[in-house]
Amino acid sequence: MKYNSSTGFSRLLIIWGITLLVVAISLGLTLFLIEQSKQTVIPIAPPPLPVAANPSDTPPPPQRVNLFLLDPTALTLVPVKIERRLHTESTQRLRQVIKALIQETSPNFRNPIPRGTLLNEVYIDSHQTAYLDFSRHLTDGHIGGTTAERLTVMAILKTVFDAFPNDIKQVQILIDGNEVKTLAGHLNLSQPLHFFD
Amino acid sequence: MTRQKSNVVYIKNPKEMRVNRRLVHHPLIAMRNAVYALFFVVCISCIVDNGVAQEPDVHFIDADGKTIAEVPAQLKDETVYLSIDAVKQVFDPAMTYQYNHPRKRLTLRMKGKQLRLQMDKPTINIDPGGEIVTLSAPPVIIGQQPMVPIGFFTQLLPLFNDVEVIYNPSLRRIQMRPKGAWMPTETAGPQNWAIIIDPGHGGVDDTGCQASTGLLEKDVVLALAKQIQQLNKPREMQVYLTRQTDTKKTHFERIQVANRNQGRLFLSLHCNASFSPHEKGIKIYLNNPKGQLRFPSTIGQAPAGQRLKILAQANFLKQSRDFAADLQTELNFLTEIPVTITELPLIALSEIYMPGVVLELGYLSNAEDLEQLSNPEYITSVAQAVTRAIQRYISSANQSLLPTASEQ
Ligand SMILES: [Zn+2]
């Protein structure tokens, strides 16, 4: 058969077309899979029951709580659902929620609270201001920068306001029992903070 | 052939897989692969012809950051070259030129001057006046067209008195602005502008964020602050730093420098950090205790002194926004990612009775930002951009102080 250059060229074109199509499909598939993995919120198994103060008390049923952690891109906060048997009393419940937040070590959702931070005490006053007293590690162990500092503070605020929509209006962060001006040198934490969505 | 559900791929017909595997070893496939390789080599050799490569376009930008023209560029001997038409397009639409082929001589006439260029020679004769300018690279012929090096724009055009040219080689951007724009003018009100530059953090305890290379925020911001002070020495304003050395300064001490010197503008310098290694870019922050993240309304019941401290910046929010916009315009020239402005309650700007802005220069947690922030040349370009933004702000603030026609 005589060689026809236009047939050869169109065959080359077809080969290139198919190659491009395969590349595009696999790229699309990869992006789709990435999107899927972003949206998946992995429910975390409820931890063992807290020891009841009075053995005769029947333990409360588990409740869902949203902890605000970093999504897999580590750029924004997302609610990650956990189940806890929560106290009915607000202060006790707040302590449980914040402890759950600072102790959370989900592999897919990075915690913006420096690992090793402890919660010393919590208190809710008559103005519906929650005072959260953390250990020094919250500031000393922080990576710094306005972006990261904002995400750390927002993770605490969002978690509190989501769990206590009616009981708590603002949050003040304390370190080792003292008021602080800032966590990492940028945000002003000298006052209680409120957050508008 | 395949269908995908969540993360599992199901294969419908395993026979098809076998057919495909057989094909892989077919001699025709080997030939096809050879054709691919050949095609690839041809493509590459088309791109790199005689050491000349097609480059990303050069963007010409006006004083407000708007693109005037995007001009195709060529790279030869590591120099960026543009066609003569680019001069016409961005500098003087009335420009004419003649090219003498045998003698390889190019004559340009623009803005009442005649420029004589010789191909492959870096010197340019300018008449009338007989001035000779030596460019960093010579004009050359590429694809039978005379082309001028980028230095023609950056070195030569500023000699035409009326323009200032700023070049960003990494982003291929050339900004052309009227010369002397935004300089404080004699007629424009008070000259005694005191600018406060606050290099954030400092000392052993407060290093700010730390990069993987060991670079510290406190050192980057101090180096930049000193450059800004140096650049402004010959100008008609005083620049004060809240710290001159690597020492710890309390917030109160910083405020004292600002308020004692009757500062009229406060710029706090920082480097950012993110939990994501991919986050990068310059960010500007304004102090607004009534933004999305805010102090409660009960602040009104606090003692007057405390209220004043917290809300002092509220009186300057409009001016702070103006300065932030000027910084944004100037810094956008340096970065690919647009500079953003965010309003938050900020400690660095609380209790300061003047317009103020926090400038986050880039992320030490990002490899590209880190590379730039480790480069003294980049720091100089940031210092120049900040200086231009300060001049721009002062100029418009002075303008607003001028009596209007009805008041005269
Ligand atoms: Zn900082």
Small-molecule binders here are: zinc ion
Protein structure class of chain A? alpha+beta
H/E order of the elements of chain A? HEEHEEHHEEE
How many alpha or pi helices of chain A?
4
- What sort of overall outline of chain B do the alpha carbons produce when their principal axes are compared? globular
Question: Which ranges of chain B are low-confidence, i.e. pLDDT below 50, for 5 or more consecutive residues?
Answer: 1-24, 42-49, 184-190
Task: Please summarize the sheet with the most strands of chain B.
Answer: 7 strands, mixed
Strand content of chain B: 25-35%
Terminal CA distance of chain B = 83 Å
Describe this structure in a few short sentences.
The complex is a heterodimer of chains A (about 200) and B (about 400). By secondary structure, chain A is of the alpha+beta class.
Features:
heterodimer, A: 197 residues, alpha+beta, 2 domains, disordered N terminus, B: alpha+beta, Copper Amine Oxidase, Chain A, domain 1, Aminopeptidase, 6-stranded mixed beta sheet, 10 helices, 29% strand, binds zinc ion
